[in-house]
């Protein structure tokens, strides 16, 4: 089957990204919300730089990934045609696997080292959506089932791009909770504010891309209550794009250097972001022999 001719959704959306970001900045200036995180010039510049850098690095990472996907696609006897009625089904399937990829990138530290970039801003606005990692090579295993089922790599790329574009508009504090049926099915700014919050009850929640129903089905949904505090549980104090992109990898390297066992090394890499080795058991205190004991 020849490669399907599908548009580059991200490329076509860039003018809309720019326009909507400008509109949001103007709206914040005209009608500021004192409780909102708002904009900060250095933070927004870092987010935009991270986004531009991700375009370059994603292009490089795609070379080996596309080669692997193509090999799997050629090996499988299955084929999913790209038709008007299969595209929505492929979007649905891609969104399902995106949920598990996103969830995995929160609970496995080496994957979190990639995704933490997107959560590193203490602001939450449309420029935050552009703060993308430079090591997104970590996502490819989650979508192999789609390729093995006969989805063309180009069709998967289209669906992934559409998912990414959808998520742009949900990075805002300017939109309150929406129509209840829409909130129940789709990811919205309210749901995604929870996802970016650093409070304990909000951590590792609302992983959906386009749909929030996966979170409802798999027990990871939390509604927005108290106002979110954005950022990380341990925030970084840098606007240097290279450090933003690599700070968690550097932290993993330091932890591995200090580790004293292979079990600890494995935990530092494949455990959760907050994983700590179990404290060493205290030596048994000598038992006191009471008078009259046999």
From TrEMBL:
Location of this chain's protein in the cell: Endomembrane system
Entry superkingdom: Bacteria
A Pfam family matched in the record: FA_hydroxylase
Organism lineage: Bacteria, Bacillati, Actinomycetota, Actinomycetes, Kitasatosporales
Topology within the bilayer: Multi-pass membrane protein
Region described as Disordered: spans on this chain: 272-294
Glycoprotein is among the record's keywords: no
Name of the protein: Sterol desaturase family protein
Keyword Cell membrane: no
Transmembrane segments: 12-30, 51-70, 82-100
Residue ranges constituting the Fatty acid hydroxylase domain according to the UniProt record: 88-220
């Amino acid at each position: 089957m020849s490669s399907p001719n599908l548009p580059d959704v991200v490329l076509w959306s860039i003018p809309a990204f720019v326009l909507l970001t400008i509109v949001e900045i103007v709206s914040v200036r005209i009608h500021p919300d004192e409780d909102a995180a708002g904009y900060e010039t250095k933070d927004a510049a870092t987010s935009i730089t991270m986004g531009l850098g991700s375009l370059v690095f994603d292009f490089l990472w795609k070379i080996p990934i596309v080669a692997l996907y193509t090999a799997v696609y050629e090996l499988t006897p299955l084929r999913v045609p790209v038709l008007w009625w299969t595209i929505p089904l492929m979007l649905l399937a891609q969104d399902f696997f995106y949920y598990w990829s996103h969830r995995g990138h929160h609970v496995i530290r080496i994957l979190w080292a990639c995704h933490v970039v997107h959560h590193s801003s203490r602001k939450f606005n449309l420029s935050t959506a552009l703060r993308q990692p430079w090591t997104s090579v970590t996502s490819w295993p989650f979508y192999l089932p789609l390729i093995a089922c006969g989805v063309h790599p180009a069709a998967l790329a289209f669906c992934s791009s559409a998912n990414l574009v959808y998520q742009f508009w949900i990075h805002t504090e300017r939109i309150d909770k929406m129509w209840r049926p829409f909130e129940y099915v789709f990811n919205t700014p309210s749901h995604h504010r929870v996802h970016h919050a650093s409070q304990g009850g909000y951590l590792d929640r609302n992983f959906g891309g386009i749909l929030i129903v996966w979170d409802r089905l798999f027990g990871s949904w939390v509604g927005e209550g108290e106002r979110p505090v954005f950022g990380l549980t341990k925030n970084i104090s840098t606007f240097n794009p290279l450090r933003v992109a690599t700070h968690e990898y550097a932290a993993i390297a330091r932890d591995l250097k200090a580790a004293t066992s292979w079990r600890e090394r494995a935990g530092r890499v494949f455990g959760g972001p907050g994983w700590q080795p179990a404290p060493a058991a205290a030596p048994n205190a000598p038992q006191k022999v009471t008078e009259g004991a046999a």
